[in-house]
Amino acid sequence: MHLLLRLIGMVVAGAAGWQLGWVLAALSGGGTQHAAENEALRYVLVLALAAAGLGLLLTPYATVVPLRRLWRFSRTAAAADLAGGAAGMLVGLLLAALAAFPISQLPGPLGSWLPAVVAVLLAWLGTALGMSRKDELFRAVRTSWTGARQEGGLRGAALLDTSAIVDGRIVDVRRSGFIGGDLTVPRFVLEELQQLADSSDALRRRRGRRGLDLLERLRDEIGIDVLDADFPDVRGVDSKLIRLARRERAAIVTTDYALNRVASLQGVPVLNVNDLAHALRPVVVPGDELTLDITQDGRERAQGVGFLDDGTMVVVEGGRRVLGQRADVEVTRVLPTSGGRMVFARLRDVADATDEVAAESKQGMPVDKGAAAATGAVAERGRLRVLRQPSGTEGD
């Protein structure tokens, strides 16, 4: 096949060189007729042989190799890329046709060859632009041809990420009505959940099966849509999810911090369940009274540790003596940390005793010096521990 193409290319190129030789000989002219014929024959033979040799060598690279690459690209490229490239090429050829007539009026060889060169350049430029801007082109066509529902794609819908499904809180959040619109699960997210559920690792397998169970709950209780969409040219579920959200103008529901940042940088709205939980945490300020279970020892002596309902750690001065019990405490300090916040408090009976001694002293009433000394010692010891606690407790 290659040899046949080479021979055909040699013949065609030789014929073209033969014709070009006669044209150049006619342009050179001059001298006697015999000398002119000898000069013409020299032009014809040299150019015909040179063109035939080039045709023999370069024909496969001008025919088979580009066609093979084009075929390979057409098999691996996404349909959207092919459609966008074809539309861009048609627009480029249309512009070249409009520009061909004025360019052909140029004098000399420019009027003959320049229209073809412009057509090739505009076709290539239109193809490149069509493939790179295909999403915007399709969105513009869909907007002009369809109604309001199709105009926004999945506008108002929420695309569920694998992390949000496995997390499980999305079920209660959706039931409470904080997330409106339709919940949509892309097919590639389902495939990732299936891979997790079939994993040989026990932890990954448990997470995958939990995610599939939660999807069944969502389908039975609320209803979800499965979107049959995929992007073979994009690697990674996160990248596909961002591409789909941009195309359909939908939001992404996730608990993945990295996906949250990347999607936000690309202008995709993100509904982070962790951000919602952080925003709904109760506000605690110094002076508030809390009731909580003292569940473990603190880092410093006599300290106890409890937790609020949202998981916030509360370090209680003197809480070790009520370890394992439910106690009333008063907040003394709130310390913001990189992982959230840490609350310091003291037992309510110590706070009441300190306040009572301070009130009696202020009113000029006689104070039991022994009780005042004991209470002052307790308060001072607690104050010193609270002041030096942050550096030692954050590591717990």
TrEMBL record:
Which top-level group of life is the source organism from? Answer: Bacteria
**Which Gene Ontology MF annotations are present?**
hydrolase activity; nuclease activity
Q: Which UniProt keywords apply?
A: Hydrolase, Magnesium, Membrane, Nuclease, Transmembrane, Transmembrane helix
Report the coiled-coil segments: none
**InterPro entries cross-referenced by the UniProt entry:** Nucleic_acid_metab_PIN/TRAM (IPR052041), PIN-like_dom_sf (IPR029060), PIN_dom (IPR002716), TRAM_dom (IPR002792)
Residue ranges of domain TRAM in the record: 283-349
Needed co-factor(s): Mg(2+)
The record ties this protein, via Gene3D superfamilies, to:
5'-nuclease
Q: Where are the transmembrane segments?
A: 7-28, 40-67, 79-101, 113-132
Protein's recorded name? Membrane-associated protein containing RNA-binding TRAM domain and ribonuclease PIN-domain, YacL B.subtilis ortholog
Taxonomy of the source species: Bacteria, Bacillati, Chloroflexota, environmental samples
